[in-house]
Amino acid sequence: MTLFGLVHGGWHGSWAWDLVVPELAARGQRSVAVDLPAHDPAAGAAEYAAAVGTAVAGARSDVVLVGHSLAGLTLPVIASRRPVRHLVYLAAMLPDPGRSVDERTAAGDRQTRRGLGRHLVAHADGSSSWKQAAAVGVLYPDSPSERAAAAAARLRPQHWRITAETTPLTAWPEVPSTYVLCIDDQVVDPDWARRAVPALLGVQPMELPGDHSPFLARPAELADLLVDLLG
I need a labelling partner for 79 at 20 to 30 A (CA). Which of 27, 54, 121, 174 fits? Predict the structure, then answer.
């Protein structure tokens, strides 16, 4: 049976998938939500990939990895190290072999919306965290207010070696991939995704209505989409 490995984005934790896991189970699918070492300033894509690899170690090749937002920088690294059936990039950033995200941004290849930093608090240790009210309005505008507030309260500081380092990915793995673009995303720029996804992944992005966080606002719809990808 297929195992869905659910990989959260920046500032989040495995709890981000709490509404999706039972939806997948109701559709007869197994899943595991991974907790990444975002608290560790020394952790980059290799360390994130190791955490995911450990979580799905019991499965063989029938693994579908779903990476949200920042997790898109890790997904192809995992697939270059172990068998994976399918990669699903959900409102995700993408790496580029030989360069860092920061280098690309400085060169004009910006993946996220301009002005995102004004919603964040920078910490002396190099991490950042969200202002809670801003998180509700930017990350979760489509979710019920109580659900959005509860999620915003659980966000944690995020360290940034993963964007400063040159990606450990040396070549794109030959694994079927799907990119899901969120039309009203206020974090990862949908226009960037429409341009970059065909060039980097060789596929056209699927377009999903709504905000950056369908795992919170549309868990049933997201589960249907993931199961449909199994064909």
Answer: 27
